[in-house]
Amino acid sequence: MTDKPIQGEKRVFMTGNETLAWAAVAAGADIMYGYPITPQNEVMHYWTRMAPKFGRKFLQTEDELSAGFTTIGGIMAGSRAFSATAGPGTTLFQEPISMAEMMRIPLVMAILQRGGPSTATVIYSQQEVNMMTFGGNGEGWRVVYSTATHQELYDYMIKSFNTAWKYRFPTFVLADGYQAKMREPLTMYNPEDRGIEMVETERFVGLPGVPGTDRPPAHHRNTFSVEEELYEATMPIQKEYEEMSEHVVEWEEEDVDDADIIILSHGVVSRAAKAAKNRLRAKGYKVGYFRPITLRPFPEKALQKVAGKCNNFLLAESALGQFARPVKEALFNVPVNSFETIYKPGVGFTAEELVEKIESAR
Amino acid sequence: MTDHLAMPKSWHVETKPHKFCPGCGHGIALKILGEVIDELNIQDRLVFGVDIGCSLLAWDFFDVDTVQTHHGRTNPVMVGMKRANPDLLCIAYMGDGGGYAIGSQHLVNSAFRNERILAIVINNCNYGMTGGQMAPTTLPGQKTETSPYGRDAETTGSPTLGPEMVAAIASPGAYVARGSIANIKQLKRFMKKAVENQIAGNGFSFLEVLSSCPTNWRTNAKQTWAFVEDEMSKYFKTGELRTPDEKKEA
Questions:
Q1: Peptide bond before A297: cis, by omega within 30 degrees of 0?
Q2: Chain A neighbours among B 18-47 (CB < 8 Å)?
Q3: N or C: which end of chain B has fewer CB within 10 A?
Q4: CA dist list (Å): A244 to A222, A298, B16
């Protein structure tokens, strides 16, 4: 008998939502709070089936506002708690996320993007980038991992708990409906077996001893009386966010050194971009590939360095410039020769169309 | 016998005198809650959640672990906490706007699910912190900043009867009552039973407190007291609406 949910390394073939639920189990998540929305639902379906077997809990709430705030409550009680949502649910979640940012609550969530604006489609898009990086009435104090494969869903879901609890910034796996619903192979593992130590959780309230007698009371707030008081409270958070950034920022780049054009993409679109790059390379075209894994904090310096080698870009995204915005900001004051975009809001990409696009211009 | 002139032990002395307006009822409600905390000796396992609105001014009121949340969201934060750690005692403290308007879905569903928390709603017939707008509990004909000619039930509905609503949907084990700062002995009995109901783990506990807001009512001391005792109590009847054993004090 063992308490490890996964024995050794386990090769599996499953959907992304199932992968996320397994990753949360493997990461030692104690409780999930959630509200049904497509294409996220199966995260809850698998979690609710596994939770009792591993002594974990679940609460289905009345809406996403409640899912977010109950998750915050669970975290403050010292639990490794998480939630998952999509689309209009992501909109509602901005309110609890902003409270988590201000109060440094290690909120962890998986976001499975669907079409927008409004109810739109339940299928796929990359239109929740703005919301997940800079939503709410705040300054974007979040960590956002944009995943491309099921292996990454598994790896980064586990990593999200550690990033969140280590740095105390809300941390998100930003995926999409394609990743949620398709099946593909991946390797599951217990984090400890790979030397990944799960960061211990801590209570925000209910600490040992009588408050006022044995210890000061824990008084947590997000409201401030005057401008300067707020400034004094927020500037250290910004400083800590900036200090954290160099440790958590991640990206992937291939064949950029001799490239005369670089394909920029993120998330599942980067699979088409990478395949296109490989096919074009095989044909003799000097094509490079750059993909931010963290959309917040954004790998600005890495992109600027790449732009120093090649300053012709083709950017592809399943939205109308939500990913292009931080890219352009990173390239501000950097000489750029050409910057082409393909925006397909709510629609996916194939390698073929990217190959054709680059080949036809050559 | 409690010495009502003394500060409850659970009060955070450094933040007294408190930040509420002169004549505000919050101080009385929080005094009674402090006494209940002391008498039940629960300071070390209690989490006090405060909403946005005047209730947020209590964020550092007690020597009790406290979380100030968002407007209407104190119930879900306390629910999430209680679900994660049932050993904690969780009290969600809010105004009538947080309880019956922006957070009404959370109140209703917490009651439906029989969440083992205590929700306290301070009913003062208006939005105090934002400057005296019409609230779900504003009385018919009452003038506020957003009902300057008096609340018209035809166009704005009738005052929310919170405890009656919760009592109608609550599960067995629930405790539901309405007290008033005009009857502190009764209010304290209700407050204590509401907290005890959570300690016993019977079910959802809910207490509405009829309270005063002279600043926004623009009333003097006499008028303030008359409004609480005469006007509010006519519409909002004090008493117990649900108890675990269904024996109720009227």
A1: yes
A2: 43-45, 47
A3: N
A4: 22, 12, 39
What would the CATH number be for the domain defined by B13-242? 3.40.50.970
Contacts of A23 (CB under 8 A, 6+ apart): A153, A154, A155, A157, A158, A188
According to CATH, the superfamily of the domain at A10-194 is: Thiamin diphosphate (ThDP)-binding fold, Pyr/PP domains (3.40.50.970)
Nearest chain B alpha carbon to A210: B44
Cα-flanking dihedrals φ and ψ of residue A267, to 5°? Answer: 65, -150
Note whether A210 contacts B81, CB cutoff 8 Å. no
The span from the first CA to the last CA of chain A, in angstroms, equals 62
Count other Cβ atoms within 10 Å, centred on residue B178: 26
Q: In sequence order, what are the residues at sequence separation of 6 or more whose Cβ sits closer than 8 angstroms to the Cβ of residue A236? A: none
Question: What's the number of CA atoms in the CB half-sphere (13 Å) around residue B32?
Answer: 26
CATH class (in words) of the domain with range A252-360: alpha beta
How far apart CA A351 and CA A67 sit, in angstroms, is 38
Can you give the residue ranges of every domain in chain B? Answer: 13-242
Q: Is A126 on the interface with B (CB under 8 A)?
A: no
Choose among B47, B63, B105: nearest Cβ to A212.
B63
Residue intervals of chain A classified under CATH 3.40.50.920 are: 252-360
| Total residues found in chain A within this entry | 362
Q: Provide the pLDDT for residue B7.
A: 94
Q: A187, A193 in Cβ contact below 8 A?
A: no
CB B106 within 8 A of CB B72: yes
Compute the distance between CA of residue B223 and CA of residue A175 in angstroms, rounded to an integer. Answer: 59
The H or E element spanning position B112 is helix B104-112
Q: Is A35 on the interface with B (CB under 8 A)?
A: no
pLDDT for A1: 39
Tell me how long chain B is: 250
Other Cβ atoms closer than 10 A to B109: 18
Enumerate the β-bridge partners of residue A340. Answer: A314
Cα dist from B120 to A168, A272, B72, B178, whole Å: 31, 55, 12, 10
Q: Please state, for a pLDDT cut of 70, what percent of chain A lies above it.
A: 99
Give the pLDDT mean for A186-195: 97
The SS3 assignment for B170 reads coil
Give tens-digit pLDDT for A133-163.
999 999 999 999 999 999 999 999 999 999 9
Spatial distance between the Cα atoms of B14 and B9, rounded to a whole number of angstroms: 12
The span from the CA of B127 to the CA of B228, in Å, is 16
State how far residue B124 is from chain A, nearest Cα, in angstroms: 22
